[in-house]
Design a protein that fits this description.
Blueprint: H1 4-16, H2 43-48, H3 61-78, E1 83-87, H4 93-104, E2 112-116, H5 130-135, H6 141-144, H7 148-157, E3 165-169, H8 172-175, E4 184-189, H9 194-204, E5 208-216, H10 222-234, E6 242-243, E7 249-252
Parallel strand pairs: 1-2, 1-4, 2-3, 4-5
Antiparallel strand pairs: 5-7, 6-7
Family: Belongs to the methyltransferase TylF/MycF family.
Pathway: Antibiotic biosynthesis
GO molecular function, one term: metal ion binding
C-alpha cells in the first residue's frame, strides 16, 4: 500500500492540475503551430501541460510537476543547501506544490520564493529581442496576470501559506538583481521570454548550489531556449540538459 507521503503528493498534483474536476482549456490560448486545440478537458494535454486551464492552479501539467517533486526530494535526500524558487508563477500551483513537498517531509529550514510581476508579461518594445517581439505574450495578460493577493489566497486554500513562503513582486529586471535569497537548491524558471530568462539566470544561477537543479519550463519556446544556451555558453556550463516533456528541461549543477 502506498504510504501517506506518496498519497498526499499524488493528490496534491492531481488537485493543482485539476485532473479531479477536469476543467476545460481556456479559449484565450494563443492559436498557432503546436498550440493545443480549444475545447473540453483532455487528459493527455493536461498531463503534458499543453493547455491553459480555466480553473486549475497550474498549467505545467503532471509530468513537469513530477519533475519538480523528483528534484526537490533529491536535494532533500542529498542535503544540498538552499531554498526553492520559481520565477513566473501564474496562479502559484508549482510553488504551492514545492511548499507541500517540504511540509510533508518535515523540512523547516528552507523557504519557497514566489517571484512574479503579478501583472502578467512585460510589454515588448522595439528594443526587445526579435523573438520576444514576435511572441507578444503581453496580449494575454487578461489570463496571465494574477494578482499577488489571489496567489496568496490559493496557498491559503491548501493550508500552505506560512512564514516559509516568500513573495518577490515586480518585473524580473528590477527584482532579480536585489533578490534577498542567499542560496538556492532548486531554481525553476517560467518566464517565457529571452530577456526574462536572461535576467533570472544572470542574477540567480550563481546562487544555485552545486548539486542543485535548474529547471526551465519554457525551453520549448525558441526565445527561452536561446537565452538558456547563450547563458550556458557564456559561462562554460556543460551539464547535460535532460528533457521532461515538449516544453520542460532541467540539469543538475556539477560545478
Amino acid at each position: 500500500m502506498d504510504n501517506p507521503t506518496h498519497l498526499y503528493l499524488d493528490l496534491l498534483k492531481r488537485t493543482l492540475t485539476n485532473t479531479v474536476y477536469q476543467d476545460s482549456s481556456n479559449p484565450r490560448l494563443p492559436a498557432g503551430p503546436g498550440a493545443a486545440p480549444h475545447g473540453p478537458y483532455n487528459a493527455e494535454l493536461r498531463s503534458r501541460g499543453e493547455d491553459w486551464p480555466t480553473v486549475a492552479h497550474t498549467m505545467v501539467g503532471l509530468k513537469r510537476l513530477q519533475n519538480v517533486q523528483d528534484c526537490v526530494e533529491r536535494v532533500i535526500a542529498d542535503g544540498i543547501p538552499g531554498d526553492l524558487i520559481e520565477t513566473g508563477v501564474w496562479r502559484g500551483g508549482v510553488c504551492i506544490f514545492m511548499r507541500g513537498i517540504l511540509k510533508v517531509h518535515g523540512v523547516d529550514d528552507r523557504a519557497v520564493w514566489v517571484a512574479d510581476s503579478f501583472q502578467g508579461m512585460p510589454e515588448v518594445g522595439e528594443d526587445s529581442k526579435p523573438r520576444d517581439r514576435k511572441m507578444r505574450m503581453h496580449e494575454y495578460n487578461d489570463v496571465l496576470g494574477i494578482p499577488m493577493e489571489q496567489v496568496q489566497e490559493n496557498f491559503r486554500r491548501y493550508g500552505l501559506l506560512d512564514e516559509a513562503v516568500k513573495f518577490l513582486p515586480g518585473w524580473f529586471k528590477d527584482t532579480m538583481p536585489e533578490a534577498p535569497v542567499e542560496r538556492i537548491a532548486v531554481l525553476r524558471l517560467d518566464g517565457d521570454l529571452y530577456e526574462s530568462t536572461t535576467a533570472v539566470l544572470e542574477n540567480l544561477y550563481p546562487k544555485l548550489s552545486v548539486g542543485g537543479y535548474a529547471i526551465i519550463d519554457d525551453y520549448g519556446l525558441r526565445a527561452c531556449a536561446d537565452a538558456v544556451h547563450d547563458y550556458r555558453d557564456a559561462n562554460g556550463i556543460t551539464d547535460e540538459i535532460v528533457t521532461v516533456d515538449k516544453f520542460g528541461v532541467y540539469w543538475r549543477r556539477s560545478a
